[in-house]
Structure formats: C-alpha cells, structure tokens
C-alpha cells in the first residue's frame, strides 16, 4: 500500500516537466513525509525499503518511477 501511494505521487509529479532541483525537493518533502509517517506506525521490511529507494532514485534521475536508461554501477572501488 505504501509503495502504491508513493508511485501515485511520482506519477502525478512526473506528468510535469520539472527540473532536477524541483524533483529533489519533491522527494525530500512529499515522499519522505509519507515514508516518515509510515515508519512511525509500522516496521517496514527490507524489500519495501529497496523498492522505495528505487522509486525515489528513478524519479530523481529520470522523472518517473521506472528507469528506462542504462544501469549505472555505483559500487566501484578505485
């Protein structure tokens, strides 16, 4: 249910052409507010956290809940 609510909010926001900075603000204020409310009420499983993180990350970089580009390896050791 939480993932559905976050996905719905991302879909509403992704219908607009907004900048990277605005998407960052939406994630911090709107999405993290919903997540914070749920975390105070329930103990969230690890899989739910992974899906929430993926939705927020994809929205920040791509503007929607699904990423359609090339995957990037973040864990790189130098």
Mean pLDDT metric? 76
**Biggest sheet descriptor:** none
Oligomeric form: single chain
Low-confidence stretches: none
Order of helices and strands: HHH
Strand % is under 5%
Identify the overall geometry.
Answer: globular
3D architecture notes:
This protein has 78 residues and is mostly helical. It has a domain of 43 residues. It is 67% helix and 0% strand. It contains three helices and no strands. α1 runs antiparallel to α2. It is globular. The protein starts with a helix and ends in a 16-residue tail after the last helix. The model has no long low-confidence stretch (mean pLDDT 76).
In short:
The chain is mainly alpha-helical. It is 67% helix and 0% strand. It has helices at 2-14, 20-41, 46-62.
Spell out the blueprint of helices and strands.
Blueprint: H1 2-14, H2 20-41, H3 46-62
Helix pairs in contact: 1-2, 1-3, 2-3
Properties at a glance:
3 helices, globular, 78 residues, mainly alpha, 0% strand
């Amino acid at each position: 249910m939480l993932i559905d609510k976050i996905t719905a909010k991302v879909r509403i926001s992704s219908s607009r052409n907004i900048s990277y900075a605005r998407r960052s603000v939406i994630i911090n204020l709107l999405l993290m507010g919903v997540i914070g409310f749920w975390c105070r009420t329930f103990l969230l499983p690890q899989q739910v956290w992974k899906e929430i993180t993926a939705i927020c990350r994809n929205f920040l970089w791509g503007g929607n809940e699904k990423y359609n580009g090339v995957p990037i390896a973040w864990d790189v050791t130098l």
